Amino acid sequence: MAMTELSTPKTTSPFLHSSSRLSLSSKLHLSNQFRHLLLPPLHTTSNSKISCSVSQNNQAPVAVQDNGSVKTKKECYGVFCLTYDLKAEEETKSWKKMINIAVSGAAGMISNHLLFKLASGSVFGPDQPIALKLLGSERSIQALEGVAMELEDSLFPLLREVDIGTDPYEVFQDVEWALLIGAKPRGPGMERAALLDINGQIFAEQGKALNAVASPNVKVLVVGNPCNTNALICLKNAPNIPAKNFHALTRLDENRAKCQLALKAGVFYDKVSNMTIWGNHSTTQRGGLLIQKWGRSSAASTAVSIVDAIKSLVTPTPEGDWFSTGVYTNGNPYGIAEDLVFSMPCRSTGDGDYELVKDVEFDDYLRNRISKSEAELLAEKKCVAHLTGDGIAFCDLGPVDTMLPGEV
């Protein structure tokens, strides 16, 4: 890595009350331990109604449609499975159309910080309802239920749906944003090449799932390390999605660098602008030091950096400034090798898209540092050639380059 400068219709049920305004067909949720209280039929005003049968086991509630047919949604959770069917004329006009956001590794520490920021409206805006699609593993499914319970207890008015599951082909259905956080950490004695292969297979499968079922213009942010190479694997396995839509998270590096520069300059960090992270999320940042001090890798600050990365794409970049994100290098103006995911300076008009900044000054020191990051990513790319469609993998990372970011 190189751096440069709504009020719902009142129910008659004694168990459910709401004073939040419903903007669209929405799903509400109640914890497992209270589901047996929902056995009495729920009544609303004549223009909207709820009809459902609620099981008292761990299965999701079963919605009963007007024609008597049963529609089962196994992945929704609790009251988020109770569907309020509002007529079009009842839908408020002040909120936007709901967007679907998938989060992998949703039972992890980073997600534990991130999900509540997403649900609060601090990321996509105070008028943007969202549906959260949470992907975990068989081992983490109970933890995912716990996450869903906390989300329901928080009463976020913008959070309209929560789905949980372990199959990316189900969880990623129609998602417009995919935040891929989950990745396997390296265990004792594991070679980096082996970890690249294990995590690479995860992101290859998730790329295929996104390609098959996600929105065709889905925006994908890869957080699981090594995020640049994982993002490359993911995009290579999703040929129907524009390669430009894939990002590797280097915003945490940018935020850390801004803090360090502000300390050196004796100013507050909002005075630091035009910071660029070139290349990859690497060991030259202070992730390892944070582990020494804190006893674990960063989670809260990583979640904040994910929020910052998304907001940089959905809000216009301030005039004269830019932000860093790892993107596909094909067609870049800097002479960086093509067919990599490489962090570069970008600007956005706030539509979710971006353009590379062309008016950047280079000196010999910067070019040398960029070349080092380029070499690291080219070496990683060779290790995962079998996952990107580039032939047989050959891994020669060398003894100096065996640590992943944040390892000690």
UniProtKB/TrEMBL annotation:
Domain Lactate/malate dehydrogenase N-terminal: 100-247
Keywords carried by this UniProt record: Oxidoreductase
CDD domains with a match to the protein in the record: MDH_chloroplast-like (cd01338)
Superkingdom of source: Eukaryota
Classification via Pfam families: Ldh_1_C, Ldh_1_N
GO biological process, one term: malate metabolic process
Keyword field contains tRNA processing: no
Family: Belongs to the LDH/MDH superfamily. MDH type 2 family.
The protein's name: Malate dehydrogenase [NADP], chloroplastic
